[in-house]
Amino acid sequence: MPLLLDLIYLAALAVIKLLGKLKPRWVDTVAGRMRRCGVEYDPPDKSEGAVLVHAVSVGEVQLLRAFIADLESMFPDYEIIISTSTPTGRDVAEKNFPMRKVVQWPLDLSFHVRPFLDALRVRMVLLMELEVWPNFMLAAARKKVPVMVVNGRLTAESFRWYRLFRFFFKGVFRKLKRVFVQNEVYGERFARLGVPRGRIVNAGTMKYDLVPTGGDPEKTAAVRKRIFLDSGEPVIVAGSTHPGEEADIIDAWLALKNDYPDLRLILAPRHIDRVGEVKDLVWDAGENFYLKSEFDREPDRKFPDKRVLIVDTVGDLAEIYRAATVAFVGGSLVQYGGHNMLEAASLGVPVVTGQYTDNFADTVDLLLGADALLIVRVKSELREVCGRLLSDASLRESMAGRAIRAIDGAKGATRRHLEVLAEITGVEVPERLAARTDACPVAAAAASP
After folding, report:
1. From CA 364, how far away is CA 342, in angstroms rounded?
2. What CA–CA distance (Å, rounded) separates 331 from 357?
3. Which pLDDT value is given to residue 248?
4. Calpha distance 204→151 (Å, rounded)
5. How many CB atoms lie within 10 A of CB 36?
6. Which tens digits make up the pLDDT trace of 397-411?
């Protein structure tokens, strides 16, 4: 099976490259991973080996902030190593965890996976959200390395893909030691892919635990000062935007400027290799802009008469949301599936999103249930909805309060993960974790084999 998978992977990569369908950033990623084949990884510093925590990209890496520290407290004799799949994910991991080892996740080739596991002396693997690959799972099973999915989510699209290629994943999902899912829908999908139901734990989502709720006026003022905003200037922050969204956002902002002459716009495209395209859109609208990287390099430089900031750096969006009067979260006016709304909502910033939010259905349900989210169905509504929020401070405040209460009420998933991990591995939950107030009962099914 591993050899057959290797041949299929290599043939598929060759065909995709020949057809010119491999995007430049993925060419670089694949080339970088191929270069790691046969290259020695530095062994872990701890005598017992390593616990490998895998986060695909930026969103998953951000979720690791508290979890990594908790794992280190529970497994002090093991080195906690972080792996990522994308260059941007690795950049953010190295920035957020400067004292930890960050490695590139191997391509799913048998001759790549085996030396990866051996060199790092991996003793346990925790996959953040998903990323189940057959050769990796087969190699881990042969070495008796338990693999678990934490904070598991399996979207309808991912489920369809796994079902479509079920020949390659036959028996693979059954090898997972535990799957901690965010909700029952995801749990049912994992079960249908072959995970025994007794190994599925409905733990909720960690994302509610990992961000503090409530705005901090001092931090807000500091962020605004750093990006050259006056304290009273209204700002629309459009985060994680995709092609086809920025033009609509710019149009809405230009129309709103008639009523709010001081209104500023911050555009943060999801992929920074699109910054040039976004710059052209702003120029075409007859507006000037400045880049975040410019004032990072020259903090004393001034940017008079430039009303648009384009974020061309990675990992800064969560802080920039602090400056927002209104936040629009992208990937939702186009059929992408949306992005994380909690970064803004948890700060007390009213959030607007489009209708395509399938990838974050649980967050949408939570915030809509609390009347703490506004959804635009068509782009023409964007101006109207943002205008309503800009004009009504009491509406902004009430939405912010309801969002924060809803998020606080949904916390506890990290604690549930830790309790089950402790039970599976036979370690004790450290006192500082046992005393935490987010403790919640663990499902009885968690203890089954």
Report:
1. 10
2. 8
3. 96
4. 7
5. 17
6. 999 999 999 999 999
- The neighbouring-strand residues paired with 125 are 52, 147
Per-residue pLDDT at 140 exceeds 50: yes
Residue 438 has pLDDT above 90, yes or no: no
| CA distance linking residue 58 with residue 86, whole number of Å | 8
Residue type, 112: H
Structure tokens at 205: 């989502």
Q: Is the pLDDT of residue 165 over 90?
A: no
Exposed/middle/buried for 377, CB within 10 Å: 0-12, 13-18, 19+?
A: exposed
Of 204-213, 234-243, 281-290, minimum mean pLDDT range: 204-213
Give dist(CA 64, CA 68) in Å, integer.
Answer: 6
pLDDT value for 294: 87
Give phi and psi for 147, each to the nearest 5: -120, 130
Q: Is the pLDDT of residue 178 over 50?
A: yes
**Mapping DSSP to helix (H, G, I), strand (E, B) and coil, where does residue 202 land?**
strand
**Residue of 288, 329, 332, 328 lying closest to 310 (CA atoms):** 288
Q: Which two tokens stand for residue 30?
A: 């694949």
Tokens, residue 52:
């490998």
Strand order in the sheet with 374-376: 289-291, 308-310, 264-269, 235-241, 326-329, 351-354, 374-376
Write down the pLDDT at residue 334: 95
Question: Residue 53: in which H helix or E strand, if any?
Answer: strand 50-54
In the block, residue with structure tokens 């086809």? 244
Which of 387, 384, 250 lies closest to 325 in space, CA to CA?
A: 387
Torsion of the alpha carbons at 45, 50, 51 and 55, rounded to the nearest 10: 70
The residue count for the chain: 449
Q: What is the CA radius of gyration of the chain?
A: 23
Q: Are 186 and 153 in contact (CB under 8 A)?
A: yes
Q: Are 327 and 352 in contact (CB under 8 A)?
A: yes
Name every residue whose Cβ is closer than 8 Å to that of residue 442 and which is 6 or more positions away in sequence: 201, 416, 419, 420, 423
